[in-house]
Design the sequence.
């Protein structure tokens, strides 16, 4: 088998890289799980997804903000549209904005990336329209701050200390700024809910926030909040794929221990 | 009305996913070109971002909102840096480069340095032994902190080994489990967007 790394890209004339066959099979299996679960969801009308404490607390956070007459701060992470975590942050923001509009409280979304800002502005505006309150949308509630990490942190921390939001929601991809943001938020006494796909930042959020969505929970959040059967089907498909991945890892481990490392070698991504 | 954007998303997503499996040089050249297009989109979005920044701070100044003086500084800085960048350029030795190195970088470093203090305050809150889990975290943290400094080896020659084991076995196992979940979640989200199941990112219809 020719591995991708051994061929100079300029001279490569192959139309398929056989070293990536395992990835293709994995994606096809995942798509099959997705299709099966969509049919199951359509047949049953609903699917059970275990409760996620951080997401259940979102309503509590919005309710608290409404009662206190203070805004909800939504921080959509510091990545651009090439990160799937940013897409998750956008979909959660749209669902959250819908609840905010329903309950009649205010939301502020400071953005790090101008493309993300443009997309979020449309998503939040649409959420207000869906909630039947298009006039309640405050132009400028989704706004650009800076594309520099620490300048962004300074601006958002300043907002927290001046405006004292009742709830701070951090969703998306975060880096070194995670603790600076979450710790300032904790000092203001706001209820804090975080979710990130960056494993290295999770401990900081766990320490400084009331609720934290760990890794995959960030991606399940949009489906969980929407409660639409087809969306929930994607979460179940994700669980099936996880069970398959665990079985493959255990199988590869046992086979390797017995002197047959073929499965372990095949599972490696080129 | 959303059929167009949904079709475009499907075609772009499917094409980029397919290009991952096609090593042909022409396909990879197309891949590079598609990625370069994102820079063009970013440049246009940056104009929208600057307008948003201007509007946001101008509103604060107009309404004399709390901290409006800082907004004046932001607006003056935005205008001055833009004017200097257009007039003198942004290369090495230009006024913009000088301002970046003498104002922006030290300010960013100062903010970054605050991390040391917030780590201490977050650790103080997290390490209070209120429950079994918090106590376990406290004990592990103490072992880790002592084991990673030179005094740890003086207390017990086994401490550095214990810290290495904590990092390489239980810690790594948990990190990898989360990483697998993140990977599958990312694939799931990507498929939802490509197949049009998730549409909230489309915004206004």
Sequence:
């Amino acid at each position: 088998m020719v591995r991708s790394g051994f061929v100079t890209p300029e001279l490569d004339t192959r139309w398929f890289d056989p070293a990536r066959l395992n990835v293709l099979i994995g994606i096809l299996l995942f798509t099959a799980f997705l299709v099966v679960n969509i049919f199951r969801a359509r047949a049953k009308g609903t699917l059970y997804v275990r409760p996620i404490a951080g997401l259940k607390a979102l309503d509590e956070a919005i309710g608290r903000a409404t009662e206190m007459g203070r805004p909800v701060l939504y921080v959509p992470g510091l990545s651009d549209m090439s990160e799937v975590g940013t897409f998750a942050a956008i979909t959660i923001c749209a669902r959250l904005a819908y609840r905010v509009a329903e309950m009649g409280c205010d939301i502020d979304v400071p953005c790090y990336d101008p493309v993300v800002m443009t997309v979020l502005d449309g998503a939040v505006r649409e959420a207000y329209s869906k909630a039947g309150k298009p006039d309640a949308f405050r132009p400028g509630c989704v706004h650009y701050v800076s594309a520099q990490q620490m300048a962004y942190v300074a601006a958002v921390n300043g907002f927290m200390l001046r405006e004292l939001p009742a709830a701070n929601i951090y969703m998306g991809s975060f880096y070194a700024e995670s603790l600076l943001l979450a710790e300032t938020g904790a000092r203001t006494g706001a209820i804090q809910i975080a979710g990130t796909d960056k494993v290295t930042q999770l401990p900081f959020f766990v320490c400084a926030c009331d609720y934290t969505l760990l890794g995959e929970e960030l991606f399940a959040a949009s489906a969980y909040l929407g409660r639409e059967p087809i969306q929930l089907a994607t979460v179940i498909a994700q669980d099936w794929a996880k069970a398959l991945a665990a079985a493959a890892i255990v199988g590869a481990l046992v086979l390797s221990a017995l002197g047959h490392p073929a499965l372990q070698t095949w599972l490696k991504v080129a | 009305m959303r059929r167009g954007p949904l079709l475009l998303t499907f075609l772009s997503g499917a094409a980029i996913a397919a290009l991952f499996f096609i090593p042909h040089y022409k396909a990879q050249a197309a891949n590079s070109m598609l990625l370069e297009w994102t820079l063009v989109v970013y440049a246009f979005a940056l104009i929208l971002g600057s307008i948003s920044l201007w509007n946001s701070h101008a509103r604060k100044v107009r309404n004399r909102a709390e901290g409006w003086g800082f907004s004046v500084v932001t607006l003056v800085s935005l205008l001055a840096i833009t004017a200097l960048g257009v007039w003198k350029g942004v290369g090495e030795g230009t006024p913009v480069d000088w301002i970046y190195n003498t104002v922006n970088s030290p300010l960013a470093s100062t903010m970054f340095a605050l991390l040391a203090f917030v780590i201490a305050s977050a650790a103080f809150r997290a390490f209070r032994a209120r429950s079994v889990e918090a106590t376990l975290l406290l004990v592990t943290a103490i072992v880790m902190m002592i084991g990673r400094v030179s005094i740890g080896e003086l207390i017990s020659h086994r401490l550095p080994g214990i810290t290495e084991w904590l990092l390489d076995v239980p810690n790594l196992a948990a990190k990898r489990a989360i990483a697998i979940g993140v990977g599958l979640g990312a694939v799931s989200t990507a498929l939802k967007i490509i197949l049009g199941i998730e549409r909230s990112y489309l915004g206004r219809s």
Summary: DSSP finds eight helices and no strands in chain B. The CA atoms of residues 27 and 33 of chain B lie 10 Å apart.
